[in-house]
Amino acid sequence: MARLGDWLEPHPHGIYVKPADAWIDPSEPEPRALVTHGHADHARGGHGAVWATPETLAIMDARYGEQPGIPVAYGESIRMGEVEVGFVPAGHVLGSAQIVLDYRGERVVVSGDYKRRPDPTCTPFEPVKCDVFVTEATFALPVFRHPDTGDEIDKLIARLHANPDRCILVGAYALGKAQRVIAELRDRGHEAPIYIHGALQRLCDLYQEHGVRLGELLPVADAKKADIAGHVVMCPPGALNDRWSRRLPDPITAMASGWMRVRQRAVQKNIELPLILSDHADWDELTDTLTEIAPREVWVTHGREEALVHWCEQRQMKARALALVGFEDEDD
């Protein structure tokens, strides 16, 4: 008897779909790549051809130069050999998609990275019933239960108002997290200009070109200290403690990351204002998603595989871990 999903081959650098002769999120160059989203642990340059959403292809173009891309919109299906391939929203970042594979009566969904809570910068996650669900496990431990997003943004705004002579310097991953923090601030009524590190400009422009409202963004490089006081400043996490930040008026250092749930991480990084804000599903979102989809089998990757596999086995849900390489922390 054939094993469920035996037409897929998990390799350390990606998942090979044999009857389609294509790879999903390969970390090495391949002739044909299906890409879930634009983060570097899932998307890279150098492939012969790339199938992805139009937004993901635009992100890859911005990061790696023009790609040999074939756009596949949400809800659209294409045929690759005997496999029908579709892309549905994953709710992770702009353009992120789950890849739905139908072959000889079996359906496999490769989720990439995903989250279930609302995000003004991307299309919400869409659950798809399937035989095999390939799930991420970045925060797959019960300790990771992300707080309400609005409450975290309110903490940021309150600290800003309490310190009008200082600025708040927020470290956030350049793709997805930075734009989400800005958009969440706008949704909470914060319409003041937000200053940004030069490394964020290109992707912020791309998000705005795709209809995401980020409001007035100003480059830190063109501003005086007095101009920046009382404002939010966004930068990549790596710039929080480097010389660049010395031009700022007594910054309150913050970081937006799911890892801020771990107090020791905040202490190690000298974070004064930890903001627990993640673009990945937390423990409850992961387990609720598996309960809702109810696949015959769960394949777990990118993170805390053991705990989620154990949770599945306790509920008579067949599960196994995939040892894929290339996982990137993303400071999320």
Secondary structure elements and pairings:
Blueprint: E1 8-11, E2 14-17, E3 22-24, E4 32-34, E5 49-52, H1 54-64, E6 69-71, E7 77-80, E8 83-89, E9 97-103, E10 106-110, E11 132-137, H2 149-162, E12 168-171, H3 177-187, E13 194-196, H4 201-209, E14 217-219, H5 225-228, E15 232-235, E16 252-256, H6 263-268, E17 273-275, H7 283-293, E18 297-303, H8 305-314, E19 318-321
Parallel strand pairs: 3-4, 4-5, 5-6, 10-11, 11-18, 12-15, 12-16, 13-14, 13-15, 16-17, 18-19
Antiparallel strand pairs: 1-2, 2-3, 7-8, 8-9, 9-10
InterPro entries: MBL, Metallo-B-lactamas, RibonucZ/Hydroxyglut_hydro, Xnuc_lig_assoc
GO molecular function: exonuclease activity; ligase activity; RNA endonuclease activity
EC number: 3.1.-.-
Give structural notes.
The chain is an alpha/beta fold. The protein folds into two domains: 8-143 and 280-321, Ribonuclease Z/Hydroxyacylglutathione hydrolase-like (Metallo-beta-lactamase, Chain A); 149-275, Rossmann fold (3-Layer(aba) Sandwich), CATH 3.40.50. Helices cover 23% and strands 25% of the residues. The protein is built from eight helices and 19 strands. It has helices spanning 54-64, 149-162, 177-187, 201-209, 225-228, 263-268, 283-293, 305-314, and strands at 8-11, 14-17, 22-24, 32-34, 49-52, 69-71, 77-80, 83-89, 97-103, 106-110, 132-137, 168-171, 194-196, 217-219, 232-235, 252-256, 273-275, 297-303, 318-321. The protein has a seven-stranded mixed β-sheet with strand order 7-8-9-10-11-18-19, with helices on one face. The termini are far apart. The relative contact order is 0.15. Residues 11-173 form the Metallo-beta-lactamase domain. Keywords: Exonuclease, Hydrolase, Ligase, Nuclease.
